[in-house]
Amino acid sequence: MFDFMDIDYDEAYEPVGAGPYIPDAGECMRCGVCVSSCPTFRLFQIDEETPRRRIRTIGRILVEKQPVSAEERKHLDNCLQCRACESVCPSRMAYGQLFDQAQAELKVKPGLLAKLAFKLIENKHWLRRLMPLLVVYLKSGLQKPLRFSGLLKKLRLAEAEALLAKPALRPLVVSYPARAAKRGQVALFTGCIAEHFDRETLQAAIQLLNAIGYDVLVPPQQGCCGAIHQHNGQSAAALIDNNIAVFNALNVDAVIHTATGCGAMLSEYQADDDAGQRFRQRLCDINEFLLQHWPDELQLTASGLKVAVHEPCSQRNVLKNQQAVYALLEKIPGLSIAALADNHICCGAGGSYMLTHPDNAGQLRDLKRRAIGDSEADLVVSANFGCAVYLNAGGGRVEHPLQLLARLLPVNM
Ligand code: SF4
Ligand code: SF4
């Protein structure tokens, strides 16, 4: 009966209060409060592209054990897993968890390219060996003719190729000592590809942590957080077990993550034993950690820049700690800080979504780029690597807030 309630679909609803999310698709009231928050509804303006309809499909898969049609499946797969719907749902639907369960239940069989991608992010040694070849390709001058030939499109590699950037080849070292009076020791989560493709952020994190008095350990045995696997119906159990074992073996005050996409996954590791609890207890977002431990005497250089803050979905809807970024940026004297308009709408990156649904993702990116243009900001900051890469593809200036903070450290730090 709630399907026909008089809902203003243009109105963005505020996140509802605290309390556990409910992993039961049958609890959906079909009230429609989630509809205006959904980026795919924004694009298509049809009920099939709403969280409400997807919850119904998920219920058919998980509760009724019914087959779903190709059409229903298409609309379900169009979901970006941004979890904006979860944040506003008055029934506290655990949409993210339900979506992953439905994907697992559907027993998704990946294609050849997807299989290869899963294998590569599972195996950092293979990935490392590939990097020199990538550098050769980027230097070879083959990029333009290959793009022009249409071959990349035929091989379904065009979207991934467009995101390529020069990788860092050398691994980070295992330990970085504090550069101020030592206060403790932390471990840095680097995951699968960030060491190669987001080295600037990781180096900024290390520099800042060292500057506030923390030794930083980077355990080489760590691996991918498992998000890409789990959200695409594949088992992430081996990756989860490995990370828990690697970080629990370290004598550190905290395990720090820098990308909110990975952080969201790490914070929801479903291991309820002692090891899982110990892992989650020590887990901390870099922005929150720096804010909590920032020494009064550490002064940053002033900056007259105008900065717009992009709030990644994983930060807004899962970690819910976006205010830490604003508070941290306020450590920079003179900086002008504003939220990017429409921060509740996903930028389109959505983990692997930018590769699997390039048309939808591209439309959402266009909206975000319009908001960036309208902001007239000198710089946009985003605490998630995936969003920054996607927004920067083909030109853009989005970086992790840590990079800005690290540039403004005193010269001896
Ligand atoms: S998912 Fe939540 S907000 Fe959306 S229709 Fe169901 S109960 Fe309402
Ligand atoms: S997770 Fe995002 S894209 Fe998916 S249904 Fe919810 S709001 Fe829509």
Automatic annotation (TrEMBL):
Co-factor note (free text): Binds 2 [4Fe-4S] clusters.
Gene3D superfamilies tied to this protein: Alpha-helical ferredoxin
A Pfam family matched in the record: CCG
Ranges where the 4Fe-4S ferredoxin-type domain occurs: 18-49, 70-101
Keyword match Electron transport: yes
Cofactors, names only: [4Fe-4S] cluster
Keywords from the UniProt entry: 4Fe-4S, Electron transport, Iron, Iron-sulfur, Metal-binding, Repeat, Transport
Key word Transport present: yes
Catalysed transformations (reactions): (R)-lactate + A = pyruvate + AH2; glycolate + A = glyoxylate + AH2
Origin superkingdom: Bacteria
EC number(s) stated in the UniProt entry for this protein: 1.1.99.14
Alphabetized PANTHER family for the sequence: GLYCOLATE OXIDASE IRON-SULFUR SUBUNIT
Function, as annotated: Component of a complex that catalyzes the oxidation of glycolate to glyoxylate.
Protein name listed in UniProt: Glycolate oxidase iron-sulfur subunit
Source organism: Candidatus Methylobacter oryzae
